[in-house]
């Protein structure tokens, strides 16, 4: 089978979409630092659609591979082309897949082999936007935007890692008399632009204080909210997609059709007409402030997804879709969204909350997007405070019931034990897993020594966790919430997930 190549696009099957613009005429207006699946399913796919819809050819993308993983060599051999496979489920339950070859990525640079080429591209006069996808080891991305330790590779003076490359590229750009650029985070994190700005300025100040001042005064770091599920691809997926395309594709990307991308419109050197890329399932919005949309997504999308993951993992279910297919779980998630979470959100112009609610339920029902419960349960210490605990506290302060939110948080606490209700152990995927395990073990040992019943044992666990102020804040001063969480945790222990969910329904 021949490899995907620009010269072969005209021969693609009729049901495979391909770029409807002249790739040879594209200018490289965007540098994408980190070219793994997520930015290719978001930035590159949306930019591709925007170029086609508008005819504006200034916004081709130069991708930068930071670690030679994620299909780097295949992307190079394919001249930046790859297939985007959008997967969902038809009413009859069959999986449907829509394919489009994305043409917006003009070429891919290898940062490890030739970092100077990356700096040259950032400094090039045609570059107007630098988009960044940070590696997990470059920053912990705490919600407050904490900066990395001084020993973090991202802060080394050599241009390595996304932050180092960006800073040294901007240094070269400034030295050449170039104009400022906009730096856009593609990471699905709260306040991603502000956090990225802090990280960049911290690194730049170590290189040159004047450079840091120039970046601070000239470059824009718009916040954004991103929401699209991207699936990992294995050899079987690559073979299936290649067969459908009729050409070998070594680096396809699989994602859901749903897309919600909200970007603060504060660019200093122009931007692609991304809003022109809106489709039947996707929406790109340029707004003055993305924070309300981030809050909506955290609570009405991330919160239900997290609750589903913890309930599924604790009950021994393998996938989120399998968990959601159980009528009592679906009814629980639906009611938690409608009766508890929705009331914590302000009215937003242009947002139909009921429609948003329905779309989130449809996403959870999408069998083509089924993810492992443990993968979906990862990193709860970074997400639970904003997507579940925050609305729970607001309901409590208003004197409203929060039964379902309390059960969702308790399911997370139960998940941290590392053993499901079938007695099977699993690794807890969380940056604070060791600390959580220690607290659980200490509390359980104390309960065993005291001969506690399940309710008393659950209270000991809750008491130990409540002292973790980074997550629970002032929970020690909110005994009603702590008591309810302990009650839900005890219920999960003796009645199981099904019994606890039915009790909260």
Mean pLDDT: 91
Structural class: alpha/beta
Q: CA-to-CA gap between the ends? A: 54 Å
Instruction: Summarize the amount of helix as a percent range.
Output: 40-55%
Would you mind describing this structure in some detail?
With 505 residues, this protein is an alpha/beta fold. The protein has two domains: 6-286, Rossmann fold (3-Layer(aba) Sandwich); 290-504, N-(1-d-carboxylethyl)-l-norvaline Dehydrogenase, domain 2 (Orthogonal Bundle). Helices cover 47% and strands 13% of the residues. The protein is built from 18 helices and 13 strands. It has a five-stranded mixed β-sheet, sandwiched between helices. A five-stranded parallel β-sheet has the order 6-3-2-7-8, sandwiched between helices. It is globular. The termini are far apart. Mean pLDDT is 91; it is low at 139-156. Residues 29-275 form the Mannitol dehydrogenase N-terminal domain.
Characteristics of this structure?
505 residues; 2 domains; 47% helix; five-stranded parallel β-sheet; alpha/beta
Short description:
With about 500 residues, the chain is an alpha/beta fold. The protein has 18 helices and 13 strands.
SSE layout and pairings?
Blueprint: E1 16-17, E2 28-33, H1 37-54, E3 60-65, H2 72-77, E4 82-89, E5 95-102, E6 105-110, H3 115-123, E7 129-132, H4 161-175, E8 182-185, H5 192-207, H6 209-218, E9 224-227, E10 230-231, H7 235-245, E11 253-255, E12 259-264, E13 282-287, H8 291-315, H9 320-324, H10 327-341, H11 353-365, H12 373-376, H13 380-397, H14 403-415, H15 433-450, H16 454-466, H17 469-472, H18 479-504
EC number: 1.1.1.-
Domain Mannitol dehydrogenase C-terminal: 291-447
GO molecular function, one term: oxidoreductase activity, acting on the CH-OH group of donors, NAD or NADP as acceptor
């Amino acid at each position: 089978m021949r490899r995907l190549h620009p010269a072969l696009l005209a021969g693609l099957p009729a049901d495979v979409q391909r770029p409807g613009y002249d790739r040879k005429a594209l200018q490289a207006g965007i540098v994408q630092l980190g070219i793994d699946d997520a930015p290719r399913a978001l930035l590159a796919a949306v930019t591709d659609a925007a170029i086609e819809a508008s005819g504006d050819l200034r916004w081709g993308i130069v991708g930068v591979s930071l670690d030679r993983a994620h299909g780097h060599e295949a992307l190079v051999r394919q001249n930046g082309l790859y297939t985007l496979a959008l997967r969902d489920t038809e009413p009859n339950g069959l999986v449907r897949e829509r394919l489009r070859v994305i043409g917006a990525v003009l070429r891919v640079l290898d940062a490890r082999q030739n970092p100077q080429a990356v700096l040259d591209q950032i400094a090039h006069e045609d570059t107007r936007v630098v988009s960044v996808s940070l590696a997990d080891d470059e920053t912990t991305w705490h919600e407050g935007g904490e900066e990395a330790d001084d020993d973090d590779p991202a802060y080394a003076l050599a241009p390595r890692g996304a932050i180092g490359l960006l800073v040294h590229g901007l240094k070269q750009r400034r030295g050449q008399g170039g104009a400022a650029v906009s730096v856009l985070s593609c990471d699905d994190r709260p306040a991603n632009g502000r956090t990225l700005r802090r990280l960049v300025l911290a690194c730049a100040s170590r290189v040159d204080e004047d450079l840091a001042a120039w970046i601070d005064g000239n470059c824009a770091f718009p916040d954004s909210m991103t929401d699209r599920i991207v699936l990992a691809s294995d050899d079987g997926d690559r073979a299936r997609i290649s067969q459908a395309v009729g050409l070998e594709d070594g680096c396809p990307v699989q994602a859901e059709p749903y897309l919600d991308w909200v970007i603060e419109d504060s660019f200093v050197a122009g931007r692609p007409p991304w809003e022109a890329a809106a489709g039947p399932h996707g929406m790109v919005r340029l707004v003055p402030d993305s924070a309300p949309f981030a809050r909506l997504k955290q609570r009405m999308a991330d919160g239900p997804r997290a609750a589903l993951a913890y309930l599924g993992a604790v009950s021994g279910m393998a996938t989120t879709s399998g968990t959601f297919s159980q009528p009592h779980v679906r009814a629980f998630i639906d009611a938690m969204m409608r009766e508890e979470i929705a009331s914590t959100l302000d009215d937003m112009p242009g947002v139909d909350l009921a429609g948003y609610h329905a779309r989130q339920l449809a996403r959870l029902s999408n069998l083509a997007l089924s993810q492992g419960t443990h993968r979906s349960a990862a990193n709860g210490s970074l997400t639970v405070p904003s997507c579940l605990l925050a609305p729970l506290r607001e309901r409590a302060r208003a004197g409203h019931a929060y039964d379902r939110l309390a059960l969702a948080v308790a399911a997370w606490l139960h998940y941290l034990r590392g053993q499901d209700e079938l007695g099977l152990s699993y690794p807890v995927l969380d940056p604070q897993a060791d600390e959580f395990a220690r607290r659980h073990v200490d509390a359980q040992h104390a309960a065993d020594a005291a001969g506690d019943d399940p309710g008393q044992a659950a209270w000991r666990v809750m008491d130990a966790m409540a002292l973790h102020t980074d997550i629970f804040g002032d929970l020690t001063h909110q005994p009603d919430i702590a008591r309810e969480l302990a009650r839900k945790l005890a219920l999960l222990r003796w009645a199981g997930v099904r019994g606890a969910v039915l009790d909260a329904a």
